[in-house]
Predict the 3D structure of the following.
Amino acid sequence: MSVKLKPITETSWLVIGDTEDTRIGLLSEVRNQYVLMVKGIKQQFLDRKAVNTFFKEDVFNNLLETEEVDNSKKDYFINGYPIDFENPYEVISTETDLPLFSKKSTSEVYYSAGYYCLNFPKNWMPSYCPKLSTLQSYEYAGPFKDEFEMKLNLQRLRKEKIK
């Protein structure tokens, strides 16, 4: 079987079999190592060579073309953390190291860039660019630079809560 990678971000790929209908899993680069998630099972690799050995081919040279990207849409980041709002206003705070932004220059409602795990009364939940007031009200983990890293931490936190 031939395996191809379909880029999702610069550091994560869908792993696809012979056809796009045969999705195998998710491969992500995390701290210069690689993590393959297949049917809830996580496998780690030290480098690209180890990934290629596992698949018995150079999967990084088998990239599927991504759809045309709309160049008019820009990605926005605060201190390297993604945000879901165009033209944000970065907020510098002496009270926290969080990557804060507001949607208007005059706004006093602040949001924190990146992905988070929030500990609500019943369970840990994912969050993307939550309000600062939410982070001040609940225990949280983060920020994380991508959704995959947040989901890995979310699974760990939920398992710890069950114990």
